[in-house]
Amino acid sequence: MTGTPTFGRVALIGLGLIGSSIARAVKAQHLADELVATDNSPAVRARAREIALADRIADTNADAATGADIVIACVPVGACGAVAKDIAAHLKPGAIVSDVGSVKHAVLKDMAGQLPAHVHFIPAHPVAGTEQSGPDSGFAELFVNRWCILTPPDDAAPDAVERLRSFWRALGANVETMGAEHHDLVLAITSHLPHLIAYTIVGTADELEGVTESEVLKFSAGGFRDFTRIAASDPTMWRDVFLNNKDAVLEMLGTFQEDLSKLTRAIRRGDGEALFDHFSRTRAIRRGILDIGQDAASADFGRPHSGLPGKS
Ligand code: NAP
């Protein structure tokens, strides 16, 4: 056990895929003296008690946060401000307050102003997930060998940032730090736009005339199937992502549409060389992802579970 960091009392607010995965990993790694958790859904709280997701399931966000050393909001991006408001008066001096939202600038704006000056607010985004939701969908290995991006405000205390970094490293993640706006731009192209394209293509196939629904399903292994998995992602979470990362997504969407127009023109003109060059370039990008170990059997979605890292 030597070398294992302990983080005192850890509080998790929101027990869906991400919150319940953190809970399972914290328990598996014995990272907290006490793990307290809550959710605004009574059904989720009842289920969390049933499967003993934490040492204690609190009935309110305020109760969960009281006396905690680290509080992590694991709720949709649009709910982060409300959580900060609920817990603000109950936080102990020196506590670290964080989140896991897929958008960072909006979360920073919504939470920072609500929190007292005597806590350390350090937003975070574990870049790991599946298309599942709810307390039963989480697993302790979700973050292993995935990146967690911290976006500390300029005046964040370095030792608090370091503490949160070691928390995520203990969950198996690699940790990187960057500005919130840069995070939102990077994630717009690597995550938000791909989800938007998947949501679009699955909707388009659903409305097609001339190709039956049963044909779409039967021949889905031709590529469509991979999009359906992404397009099954949680509607609340993704609504909030697009509402809160509007500028970066629109900027990337503009560039994407220009590139799509170039490929459309190449197809219309029968320009095989342009198509071949483009596909060769993208194949090299895929190989680059494999080379740095960020591939999983079926993207990040439904990847097989690997073990948590050793504890020393
Ligand atoms: P999820 O499975 O839908 O769970 C979210 C939970 O938070 C739900 O049980 C929800 O309850 C609860 N909640 C909502 N508002 C609340 C509030 N004000 N107070 C307390 N609990 C509240 O979502 P998730 O997939 O874990 O995502 C959570 C966060 O992680 C999001 O910000 C998302 O952007 C981020 N994230 C997700 C992924 C992913 O792949 N899923 C990956 C990285 C980061 P109700 O259902 O009753 O509202």
Which key features would you list for this structure?
312 residues; alpha/beta; six-stranded parallel beta sheet; three-stranded mixed beta sheet; 10 strands; 12% strand; globular; disordered C terminus; binds NADP nicotinamide-adenine-dinucleotide phosphate
Q: What can you tell me about this protein's structure?
A:
The chain is an alpha/beta fold and 312 residues long. The protein has helices spanning 17-29, 42-50, 61-65, 80-87, 105-112, 158-170, 180-207, 213-218, 224-230, 235-244, 246-269, 272-291, and strands at 9-13, 34-38, 56-57, 70-73, 96-99, 120-121, 124-127, 147-150, 174-177, 297-300. The chain contains 12 helices and 10 strands. The strands form 2 sheets. A 6-stranded parallel β-sheet has the order 3-2-1-4-5-6, sandwiched between helices. Strands 7-8-9 form a 3-stranded mixed β-sheet, covered by helices on one side. β5, α5 and β6 (120-121) form a beta-alpha-beta unit. α7 (180-207) packs across α11 (246-269). NADP nicotinamide-adenine-dinucleotide phosphate (NAP) binds next to α1, α4 and β7.
